[in-house]
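User: DUF2961 domain-containing protein, Micromonospora avicenniae:
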Amino acid sequence: MANADLATIARLRSVQTRSISPENFDGSAGGGGRATTGTGAECARDLGPGWKISPSVDIAAGATFDLATISGAGQINHIWITTHKDNWRTLLFRAYWDGAEEPAIEVPYGDFFCSGWGEFTQVNSQMIAANPNGGFNSYWPMPFRDGARLTLENLSTVPVRVYYQITYEIGGDYSGLGYLHAQWRRSNPLEYLKPHTIIEGVTGAGHYVGTYLAWGVNSNGWWGEGEIKFYLDADDDYPTICGTGTEDYFGGAWNFDVPGRGYTEFSTPYLGMPQVIRPDGLYVSQQRFGMYRWHLPDPIHFAERLRVDIQALGWRSGWRYLPLRDDIASTALFYLDRPTARRPRTPSADDMEVHLGSAPVPDLGAQPPRPPA
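Assistant: Predicted structure for DUF2961 domain-containing protein:
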């Protein structure tokens, strides 16, 4: 699933590389470094054109900015982007394929890059890298047959400065590739005796490739006994794939608890729990976790439809499970044979907000999904 590996890196291909940034907004050949105005113009006043005159953009409050508009067929291979951490849950990242009016990707900026809590942690994975201090990288291949558009919407009340570079290729054959989709849902708090919905109502053929969870605990004790379930094609009441526990799905075991260390962060190419946010004795009253699982060697294939959910379970007396009402925000990634899919309603700024306490927001896991365009 990666763009290149040791088995193919030496293979010659008749494609061209292009890159879009504030120094080359349209990615044109020879179009970089020509800016005469921009956010760095004052800093370059003694140097002139070609000396970092337009390294970033400012997005006004309430505005949507087009990061990239690409015509024809191609594939985005790498995104690097950065902005201040205060903006990680106030920006909405979207991607549209083949001229569709509905986005295939609609995810809070930070969550797409495994950083849903607005606090930096190092992420060392094959598909997403988050590096000091807020340098976000995506290596998810994003093929398209008839154009691509990537945007950021600023849902905050202040302008936001963003630096970015989007590298893509053109000239290849992308006809047999699926379109990347990413959907975000939040349950805060999760409805009692209900699982958190990760994906529902998706139809078509494709394969599920990734999950990121920003999990906020709203009670004492262990929180990860719940199973993740994948309902494939004709599955109705019972799934084809059923996990054995939350920490098991993300590749850990026994509560992520290393004796003497407690919850222990880890980050590997395909799975990890890179973030553990502990109470500070004042305003940060609850534990919070960030976890990812990339199904690269083991994509989950479906031919007709897909639904995914996860339970939230702890323990009560008598070795009985305790259904929990935690704050769970999920980002699901999958490739599909079409550029649009049924999706939840667009989240608002209040839906995405990271609360200091555990005040509830509307449950986006239970919202009726949107039909495709």
